[in-house]
Amino acid sequence: EQTDEEREQTSRFGQDVVELLGHSPDCLLPFNKFVPSYHHHFGRQCRVGDYGFSKLIEVFEALPEIVDIIEDIDGERMIQLVQQEKLKVMGKQIVDIIQNSKKKYIPLSQLQEVYISKFGFQLRLETVGCNTIEELLDHLRSWIKVNQGREEPLATIVDQGYVRTTAKNVRKLLMDQPDGKMELKQFVQEFENQFDSIIDLEMMRRDMSDILTIEDGEDGEYVRLTPLQMAARNISNLLKEEKGKLSVEQLESAYLHKYGAPLKPEDYGFYSLTSLLAAMPDTVDVIGFSRVHF
Question: What's residue 289's pLDDT?
Fold first, then answer.
């Protein structure tokens, strides 16, 4: 059984795995080359004991949302990123290509050629279940948009600043509601009234799943904060009552007293209160001696 610290270490190791495999063709690496590749890339040893395991494969098996262990046609074990992680890697790579292009766009007909020139290997669409560049970019709409140029479609970068600002306003509006939810039609109208802007519902569904969910109700669709964001709202309200700061121990006690239920990190997919609070950077800071600030 892993300790909380070992679970935290395993989670951080998962991000190392994403970075390392993201530099490999098809986000794929032979199992027996992982340890030397890890050492070469990060300049440190890969010690499985740090994660509470005795074998490397056990560490990978603890990260099913990040990696798969497969066998190639010769029966050799391979490590690969799961499809969703592969798409994220490809999205970041294509954004990098566009950002470094002189005109800040790439004609779709040239994307594969430019990708090979930049990374030294082909963008293999079939590894993420796509048949065409257009189909791939449709999966990457959070990063890349396609505009029609004079002669052909052009890949450009989505304005992430606009997405972040909109998400911040969406979060604020929902946090102001007593139960963190609104009827969707009312939400759209109130958003326009408060922020003088028409919300893009497709963008909201696609790019803000970490903030909200849209659900069917008896009277139509509702938009509501995710459980993690509801916990962040509750903590924010507590900190306001306590002049903006509490120790972690005081926070646990005050949360139980105010809301009648303990603040349990495992309910939100975290192994410790510190890691739960770290997932709320827009709400709290944890600084020195485990003190939580607004």
Answer: 47
